[in-house]
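Write out this protein's structure.
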Amino acid sequence: MENEPTQDDTDGLRDDDCTIPPKTLPMEYPNEVAPVEAMAKCFYQRYDACTAFYMGSLIEACQAAFMSTATEELRPVLVYIHHGRSIFSNIFCENIFCSRTIIEYLLENYIVWPCDVTLEGNRNRLTNILQEILPDQVINSFDVNKYPKLLGIKRIAQARQGDSFVFGYQSELLLEGDVLVRNQVISNRKNVLEELIFFKNECDENEQSFSYYLNIQTRFGRNAIHRIVKYITLNDAVNAFTINILPLLRERETPVEICDPDNLFINTILPKLKAKQVISLRLTTNWFCTEQDLSRLNSFSSIFTLSLFNFPDIKLINIYQNYFPQIKNLCLWYDSEVNFTLLHDLFEYLNHSIKRFEVHCPGYVCPHSNPDQCEIALFGAYRIEYFLFDLSNFPLSPTSDCTNQWPSCFLITIIDLIKYMPSLRYFQLITNMDSISKLLDLKEWIRMTSYCRHLAKITLRVLGRMESDDEMSQKIKEIQNELRTLPQNAQFQVIFN
């Protein structure tokens, strides 16, 4: 038979131009079932085969797909959108959609809902249906050769009511014309089947993760989720618990940190939270964004912490901090040694809004290795009240270390930096146990108080299994007693971890 479905699973599309006559699919129907029945009838007449279409409305199809309480029985919805004047519609149906392989797979794994949009009235009807069920989904109804389309629909939790969830739906465009959207390849029977399997697996993982999330909540309580999210980024939380975690975070207004958000994340994930929940932004040098993305992020006016990873360019640091003028905390993280010259020069660009400044690195480049770095005209960071210098990230010995000849080299260098923070109230240094003896120089700590008139507390946190010996304890006590006699009455604390 001329139009008999091809049985070879690897056949691609052919370039004939046979379409379902639009006159067989009238614009007006007495109910939601009639157009589906008419479309199934047309398929059987032309292709002698048809997948099992759901006889009802799209919302009823979605409800039927996700009504089971057993996760393994849930199925995504596949919307097939047909246009009789597209050269690809007949080719796709004959060679792929009405093949035995696809029909059998869809029968077991999907609920399929069709819609013919050859006539404008039907296109308008579909647009209204999608706006009601899938407000984020936009269908390009103008380019005929963008048809047929396959739209996959999965379930998401939209809001929480007491101990239950209100569910909604999220769609993903799988096929447009003769191109698979995710991989941007020309469709054939084999890769269409692979794409259907991929989306089905994605939906199964979504449902399983949601079930896992509910089990955690049932066993450990709702607060357990919030305690976990406190220590990870929102990106990691969504990966661990799926987007079904978002209603719970929104309801409790849980503060979150986001990392390298791409356009999809900014436009689909963040709008499901309240703007004030996004309080921290973490960026790496791999992050790429447009001006539009940055402007969209800037609308989250509660982003008070900006963490930058391995940014060597001061001007780039300045650009990002200027996009977020409300930033109060600036944290710089490095996987290699930090050069004090970088920190010196950065003070010229720091916004006055920044109150807390943190540097996390495994080591530092001793400034005395380059005499030109020792005499630098510095700009003051007059608003910084808290400074953390953290050397706990895989501690390294400093480059060109001169502490053997000059034991207080590092302490002198760090205080030379601190003297340009006259408003400093709290200073914390995290280091390893080998450094502690070189940090107990009373004269240098007294010098620090002369620069920082508002200094309230100094904390040295020492890593490694170590207890202070008698000599060390005596030095610590001497520093504590001496600082109490000064006008600031600053506390000096050493913590051994």
